[in-house]
Amino acid sequence: MDTPNRTQKKVTLLVMAAGMGSRYGGIKQIDGFGPSGETIMDYSLFDAVRAGFTKVVFIVRDEILETVKEKFLPKLQGKVEVEFVVQSIDKLIPPTYDITERTKPWGTGHALLCAKDVIQEPFVAINADDFYGKEAFASVANYFKNDTTGAHAMVGFTLSNVLSEHGSVSRGVGEQDAEGYLQSVVERTTIVQEQGKVISKEAAGDRVLDPSAPTSMNFWGFHPSVFALASSMFEDFLKENNQNLKSEFYIPLIVNELIHRGQGKVKVLGGGNIWFGVTYKEDKEEVSSKIRALIEKGEYPSKLW
């Protein structure tokens, strides 16, 4: 592994690995995709360590906690601090709410809040089952190293690079101002490619999107000040949605409110040059093939650790 270029400030990686993966038919967070059985998470951890991150916080479900510890603690020992936090259905939920029927996690915003007691420094929240590439980690580490504004950050992935040839996708499409700060993130739930255009299928009709628009793939950089707003918003969310068994509290909701209230800015960063993820079991071979291609190019060793 390359010698880490340590950032002057401490920076934590928050890995959100508590999703259920129902469409995958297994626990995709700990499934092997690399030539030596590496998970997608392994590559993110490898990239974070060499970019200079100083701590890793895993957000997991209780049933995979011990497996994740066994799999990743030996690899990270001596390289970064490590914390494990369980995202349970009842965590941070007031006892006045009856949630006995709920089985679905509360979403990425809730995952972020579950970690608030173990993070006091700038941090980066990512999905465990998405492959982001080393440039994304280097970009956000460099940002926090040199930032003097106190702004949060989002690594922007070019919309045309994160679409699917196999059908529609749901993406958080961003708009930014002339200075490169995010103005909003809008979740477009049905994006397709048709006749050379990127189109969002909506109730009001087709909306043509800018193929170069900065898109959120859940690669967020936050200062810990975000927790206060997120906590307040989650309280309001629960009042309205505690009986809705499928409702989820997403990070983009927090980001949009942050911008709307003028409580912070979000800088759109470069580095979103590569992304791939796994949703269905059929995606596994394609993801493994893309990893092999990166290894052949010298981006990663064939055995990471």
From TrEMBL:
InterPro entries: GlmU-like, NTP_transferase_dom, Nucleotide-diphossugar_trans. It comes from the Bacteria. This is Nucleotidyltransferase. The keyword Transferase applies. The keyword Disulfide bond does not apply. Pfam families: NTP_transferase. GO terms for molecular function: nucleotidyltransferase activity. It comes from Dawidia cretensis. Gene3D superfamilies: Spore Coat Polysaccharide Biosynthesis Protein SpsA, Chain A. Keywords: Nucleotidyltransferase, Transferase. Residues 38-212 form the Nucleotidyl transferase domain.
